[in-house]
């Protein structure tokens, strides 16, 4: 493993273990076995290191979404779509620091629906499941994808922040809302 990869990996471990608030470049350098200024040989700035770590976290989410959805032989399109959406919530629960890191000041590279999403992005995985679920070439695939993304992302964010100690069954409620959303789209 090269030093840049080691820095990203250790940075991610630090964030998972201690949170973003406890992070310093000096601690990271010590853990990797280099001097703090040497980090700038591999990353031009602290922000570049964060961006690389966010990209790795996004890849992890993409892997989780793909694994939970299963292949075409595993259930129908609706179940694959539901499993993909619920995997998003599961990832946020299992990897809260990575989830938080991933969405910190990370604007989309897309500027319109005319541009395709990055094929390796978690959103592209969700969009492909929506396109399996809806009739071929349905013109509103992105609308449904965005609705699902907003629902599960909102639930995940609320669960980690405002509703951290809230006694309601957020995951079950989100699943019921997803069922209702998909049932409505199935008739259009």
UniProtKB/TrEMBL annotation:
SUPFAM superfamilies: Homeodomain-like, Tetracyclin repressor-like, C-terminal domain. Residues 1-61 form the HTH tetR-type domain. Residues 24-43 bind DNA. Gene3D superfamilies: Tetracycline Repressor, domain 2. Pfam families: TetR_C_33 (PF13305), TetR_N (PF00440). InterPro entries: Homeodomain-like_sf, HTH-type_TetR-like_transc_reg, HTH_TetR, MT1864/Rv1816-like_C, Tet_transcr_reg_TetR-rel_C_sf. PROSITE patterns: HTH_TETR_2. Keywords: DNA-binding, Transcription, Transcription regulation. This is TetR/AcrR family transcriptional regulator.
């Amino acid at each position: 493993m090269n030093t840049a990869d080691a820095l990203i990996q250790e940075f991610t471990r630090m964030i998972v273990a201690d949170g973003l608030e406890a992070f310093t470049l000096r601690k990271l350098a010590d853990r990797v076995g280099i001097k703090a200024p040497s980090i700038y040989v591999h990353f031009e700035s602290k922000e570049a290191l964060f961006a690389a770590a966010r990209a790795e976290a996004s890849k992890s989410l993409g892997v989780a979404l793909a694994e939970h959805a299963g292949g075409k032989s595993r259930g129908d399109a609706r179940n694959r779509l539901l499993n993909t959406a619920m995997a998003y919530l599961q990832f946020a629960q299992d990897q809260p620091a990575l989830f938080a890191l991933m969405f910190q000041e990370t604007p989309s590279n897309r500027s319109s629906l005319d541009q395709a999403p990055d094929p390796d992005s978690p959103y592209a995985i969700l969009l492909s499941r929506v396109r399996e679920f809806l009739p071929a070439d349905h013109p509103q695939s992105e609308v449904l994808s965005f609705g699902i993304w907003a629902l599960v992302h909102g639930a995940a964010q609320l669960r980690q922040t405002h509703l951290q100690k809230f006694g309601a069954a957020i995951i079950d409620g989100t699943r019921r809302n997803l069922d209702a959303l998909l049932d409505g789209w199935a008739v259009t």
